[in-house]
Design brief:
The protein is α/β, with parallel strands linked by helices and about 300 residues long. The chain is built from eleven helices and eight strands. Strands 2-1-3-4-6-5-7-8 form an eight-stranded mixed sheet, with helices on both faces. Strand 5, helix 7 and strand 6 form a beta-alpha-beta unit. It is globular, with a radius of gyration of 18 Å.
């Protein structure tokens, strides 16, 4: 990733004083995305942390139009907004469905799949904090294997792997899919702007650490998101038309053992050395699979 010429936009479409927790990764993700998209943006938000973060009606921390909708309907509601704007002759505004991992990989998957199959001209953003954080840190399909949540306690942590939502979206052969984190604003904003320039369905998967849910210090959210990339827990890459993969990988000298990522998070504090080694092997297997996909292009 080339950061040499990156300059963060001075545009602020998110006011201070939002209702998110201190260090909220989802709040920072929204700020960056809106900087990249500009004021001609409509945000559609289903039930999730951002339902609260935005503030109570009639107030809003966002300086763009917002439509709150039901948990399972982010993609279809955004599709409806897009259609309504085009009927009015507005082809310039960008419509964004903004949902958490629960509203994306679980409850909202049917609407998301339908929108992808129809190739709706929207951007769907999943800000992934890896659990149902707004309702009490319950396990979701995006929760990593062996992680603690309030429904997967330390003596019985989640036994299943994290659902690969990016692979699911790539299988729909939509025009553009990408991963990003709040620790790499240059990479994130470039991908948002690219998504804006592409007609059809776009899906962005943003890792957004949650301090209370991950049991981390509020000032460590960005650091841990960066570690997720450096340990290859959360690789940065793009997929065009479901086929062409591009890695946005860190330099080889930046790669570090996954232990550095796990040890800072209370949700993994119960793991023993054998379990941590198993997780490391799983990460390496995922990385090798991703490299094969890139090399076959």
């Amino acid at each position: 990733m080339n950061r040499a010429n990156f300059v963060l936009s001075e545009i602020e479409l998110m006011s201070p004083g939002h209702l998110g927790c201190q260090g909220c990764g989802g709040a920072l993700a929204m700020r960056y995305v809106l900087k990249a998209l500009g004021e001609r943006t409509v945000i559609v938000i289903p039930a999730c942390c951002w339902t609260i973060i935005a503030g109570p009606f009639p107030y809003s921390t966002l300086k763009v139009p917002v439509l709150h909708t039901a948990f399972e309907t982010a993609a279809v509601a955004a599709s409806g907004v897009r259609a309504a704007l085009e009927v009015q002759g507005d082809t310039e505004s960008t419509v964004v469905a903004w949902a958490g991992d629960g509203g994306t990989v679980d409850i909202g998957l049917q609407a998301l799949s339908g929108a992808a199959e129809r190739n709706e001209n929207i951007i769907y953003v999943c800000y992934d904090n890896e659990a149902y954080m707004n309702t009490g840190i319950q396990r979701s399909g995006a929760t990593p294997r062996l992680a603690w949540t309030t429904t997967t306690p330390e003596k019985n942590p989640k036994g299943e792997r994290k659902k690969d939502i990016v692979a699911i979206m790539a299988a729909h052969r939509i025009p553009y899919t990408a991963t990003a984190t709040i620790a790499h604003p240059d990479d994130l904003m470039r991908k948002v702007q690219k998504a804006k320039s592409v007609r059809g369905m776009k899906f962005l998967h943003i890792l957004a650490p949650c301090p209370p849910g991950w049991r981390i210090l509020s000032e460590e959210a960005v650091k841990i998101a960066r570690l997720a990339v450096q340990t290859r827990v959360f690789p940065l890459y793009e997929i065009e038309d479901g086929e062409r993969y591009t890695l946005n990988a860190p330099r080889a000298r930046e790669i570090i053992p996954a232990e550095e990522y796990f040890k800072l998070q209370g949700r993994f504090a119960h793991l023993g050395s054998q379990e941590r080694e198993q997780m490391q092997q799983e990460i390496e297997g995922n990385w090798m699979r991703l490299q094969r996909l890139v090399q076959t292009q």
